[in-house]
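Design job #97: recover the sequence.
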């Protein structure tokens, strides 16, 4: 697993006035997927964009759209995000009154299912649903803003889930999101994450976008 690390740059830190070009640059620079942060100003304090923007940027790349929905209530909007071009649809358990049903809605749209755990959300919320989930997104900051500090305490959850997934031979990706930089990426990989989300470091970190992606992937 360790030698197959995928990088999912968050376009939250891109220049929104030229989002299409920024996405093409990510593709050219070796990104494996595009992390699309949807915020509603209600479940999280910040507000970003919705299906019409996603539909437009969908035309700029063939990369997987990894859509992180931070909206509540989420279920009634899933079809709109599926139709706009999401490939993976990730929801937070707190944004639905029935996570199992919400997962079924995502599946009925033929999309991959992601479930995201906030730093304070325990893993037992998803433990009986693991056979229905394709991706677990571990938040390593409280969702809402780019550029926050990594919370190392979430690595325990990554380690626990990695051993459960490996022992039970489950086909689930572990993605980590928030404060991933050149120091924290190796810690997340070591704990068992195989997809790294990063916004600030990729767009504003040390070098150019391509070097930043390459350096995050290093273990
Ligand atoms: C936070 C978002 C993240 C964020 C990552 O709520 O889900 O995807 O944009 O940004 P950095 O890499 O700056 O922490
Ligand atoms: Zn995110």
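Job complete. Output follows.
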């Amino acid at each position: 697993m360790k030698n197959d690390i995928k990088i999912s740059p968050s376009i939250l830190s891109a220049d929104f006035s030229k989002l299409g070009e920024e996405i093409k640059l990510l593709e050219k620079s070796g990104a494996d997927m595009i992390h699309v942060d949807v915020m509603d100003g209600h479940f999280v304090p910040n507000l970003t964009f919705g299906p019409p923007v996603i539909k437009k940027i969908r035309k700029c790349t063939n990369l997987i759209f990894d859509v992180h929905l931070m909206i509540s209530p989420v279920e009634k909007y899933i079809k709109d995000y599926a139709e706009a071009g999401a490939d993976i649809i990730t929801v937070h358990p707190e944004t639905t009154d029935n996570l199992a049903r919400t997962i079924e809605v995502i599946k009925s749209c033929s999309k991959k299912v992601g479930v995201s755990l906030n730093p304070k959300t325990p893993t037992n919320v998803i433990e009986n649903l693991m056979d229905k989930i394709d991706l677990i997104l571990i938040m390593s900051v409280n969702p809402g803003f780019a550029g926050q500090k990594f919370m190392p305490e979430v690595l325990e959850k990554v380690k626990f889930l990695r051993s459960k997934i490996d022992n039970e031979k489950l086909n689930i990706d572990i993605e980590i999101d928030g404060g991933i930089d050149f120091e924290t990426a190796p810690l997340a990989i070591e704990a068992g994450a195989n997809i790294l989300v990063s916004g600030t470091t990729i767009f504003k970190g040390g070098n150019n976008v391509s070097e930043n992606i390459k350096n995050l992937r290093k273990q």
